[in-house]
């Protein structure tokens, strides 16, 4: 099978993780643009270079496409770009011409512009450093009250006007994609809801797109991977099993739906079906939180796993979502001690619940359905996930002024022993911040 894949940007989870997952099946020919063409934290993608890549893409069975990358230069530029609606509309119209020559199934997604609840402008426009929290509150209260909040009087009019016009531009562009889907130019179209709250302009826009026939999904970075799994058009029955079943209706940080809803939604969007354990091909074990989701890096504590982990007697994969942005140390200790076996189909515990689920299900499906399974690629994938999600995010990320390679050494030994490997990892920070680390073997 030949698959073209256009990522959101050049972060490891957006660029290298899809490659690592695709390698699980040697029969997949995976086409992805050069990393230098994609954007980062401060630079947008080389859009003209990506158009050339699309035009020269060999005949594929499927193309997984981040529309934000072509329209704005990436997910972050979609919030910052000063271009007009007309400029962006003219640009994306070129996509239709390219698709008509490719005859591939198109699996695409576009973001609904997020509203972060803080005064951090690292991924937003400059004025977010002072007015971000106020804009969030204005959006939240205006939606909740059903009329404009008086918070508008606090925010400078030129800033609020710019923010609202940027939102409106992106929303109108999303409506164009919706028309394309009605014309059957797209096999699947997903509108992603990134960093959601109960109320806000982004929630209103999602409902408006749904009313027009659109499909919205909580999450962002994992959606291309979920669509990659969907492009593998083979049936797979997955049974979710929760470590705390009585708490599966609680809502995770940065999301607006219960954990169980998120789990089932990710399974179905990946082209799989939800099944009972007895009938399932794979068990999806979810280490969910009991009261609230913790987050080590933000100092948000929660009750760790305190049960006994018993490995299923059929293929299983593990979604560790008790904490956001990293593993539950108590749970991983039990996994490590229980040992690796042939039924183990993967572990994930990065960032949000949706991020963890989407990437895990994608890897599990590609491995299960592989025509030419690559065990070495699976071991590498799992080593990277454990070193990133567990060793780094849940442990050494919290240490300051350290030699990271030295701090990770003990974890490397345990991961290698668990997997029966002898990897020698290296680490770097591709966006020059501690939020994401890139692990190479």
Number of helices: 14
Distance between the termini: 27 Å
- Rg over alpha carbons: 21 Å
H-E order: EHEHEHHHEHHEHEHEHEEEHEHHHEE
How many separate domains make up the residues?
A: 2
Q: Strand count, sense and closure of the main sheet?
A: 6 strands, parallel
Shape: globular
Structural class: alpha/beta
Helix content: 40-55%
Strand content: 5-15%
Average pLDDT over all residues: 95
Task: Please give a handful of descriptors for the protein shown.
5-stranded parallel sheet; 2 domains; 14 helices; globular; 6-stranded parallel sheet; 441 residues; alpha/beta
Polypeptide structure, described:
With 441 residues, this protein is an alpha/beta fold. The protein has two domains: 2-228, no CATH class; 235-440, no CATH class. The chain contains 14 helices and 13 strands. It has helices at 16-22, 47-56, 67-71, 77-80, 85-102, 128-145, 157-182, 201-211, 223-231, 259-269, 329-338, 353-368, 375-392, 404-419, and strands spanning 2-6, 29-31, 62-66, 105-112, 188-193, 216-218, 237-242, 273-274, 282-287, 316-320, 344-348, 426-428, 438-440. Strands 2-1-3-4-5-6 form a six-stranded parallel sheet, sandwiched between helices. It is globular, with a radius of gyration of 21 Å. The model has no long low-confidence stretch (mean pLDDT 95).
């Amino acid at each position: 099978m030949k698959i073209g894949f256009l990522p959101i940007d050049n972060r490891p989870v957006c660029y290298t993780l899809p490659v690592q997952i695709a390698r699980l099946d040697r029969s997949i020919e995976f086409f992805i643009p050069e990393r230098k063409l994609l954007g980062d934290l401060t630079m947008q993608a080389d859009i003209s270079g990506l158009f050339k890549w699309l035009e020269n893409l060999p005949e594929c069975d499927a193309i997984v496409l981040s529309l934000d990358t072509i329209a704005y230069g990436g997910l972050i530029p979609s919030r910052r770009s000063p271009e007009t609606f007309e400029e962006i509309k003219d640009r994306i119209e070129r996509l239709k011409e390219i698709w008509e020559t490719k005859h591939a199934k198109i699996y695409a997604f576009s973001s609904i512009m997020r509203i972060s609840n803080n005064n951090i402008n690292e991924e937003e426009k400059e004025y977010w450093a002072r007015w971000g929290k106020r804009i969030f509150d204005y959006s939240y209260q205006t939606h909740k009250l059903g009329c404009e909040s008086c918070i508008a009087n606090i925010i400078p009019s030129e800033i609020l006007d710019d923010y609202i016009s940027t939102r409106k531009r992106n929303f109108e562009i999303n409506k164009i994609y919706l028309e394309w889907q009605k014309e059957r130019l797209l096999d699947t179209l997903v509108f992603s809801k990134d960093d959601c709250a109960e109320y806000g302009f982004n929630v209103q826009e999602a409902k408006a797109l749904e009313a027009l026939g659109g499909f919205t999904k909580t999450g962002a970075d994992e959606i291309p991977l979920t669509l990659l799994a969907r492009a593998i058009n083979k049936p797979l029955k997955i049974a979710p099993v929760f470590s705390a079943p009585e708490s599966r209706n609680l809502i995770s940080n940065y999301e607006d739906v219960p954990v169980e809803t998120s789990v089932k939604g990710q399974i179905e969007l990946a082209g799989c079906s939800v099944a009972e354990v007895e009938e399932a091909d794979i068990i999806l074990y979810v280490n969910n939180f009991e009261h609230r989701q913790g987050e080590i890096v933000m100092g948000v504590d929660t009750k760790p796993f305190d049960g006994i982990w018993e490995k299923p007697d059929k293929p299983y994969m593990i979604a560790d979502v008790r904490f956001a942005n990293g593993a539950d140390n108590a749970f991983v200790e039990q996994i490590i001690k229980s040992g690796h076996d042939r039924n183990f189909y993967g572990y994930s515990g990065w960032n949000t619940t949706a991020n963890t689920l989407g990437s895990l299900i994608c890897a599990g499906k590609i491995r299960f359905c592989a025509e030419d399974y690559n065990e070495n690629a699976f071991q590498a994938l799992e080593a990277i996930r454990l070193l990133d999600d567990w060793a780094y995010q849940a442990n050494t990320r919290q240490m300051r002024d350290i030699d990271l390679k030295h701090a990770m050494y003990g974890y490397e030994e345990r991961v290698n022993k668990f997997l029966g490997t002898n990897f020698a990892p290296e680490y770097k920070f591709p966006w020059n911040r501690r939020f994401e680390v890139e692990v190479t073997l």
